Amino acid sequence: MSSVQEAMHDHHQAMVNTLDQHVADLTSAPEAANPAALVEFLQHELLPHAKGEEAYLYPAVDPLIKAHGSATATMSIDHTYIERYIAQITTAVQAIRTQTGTAQAAATEELKRLALQLQAIFHLHLEKEEAVYLPLFNAHVPAEEQQRVLDAMHAYDAQPPVQQTIDVRQIPPPQRHPLIFNTFAALKVGESFRLINDHDPKPLFYQFKYEYEGLFTWDYIERGPEVWQVNIGKTAAGQPV
Question: Whole-model pTM?
Answer without folding.
Answer: 0.64
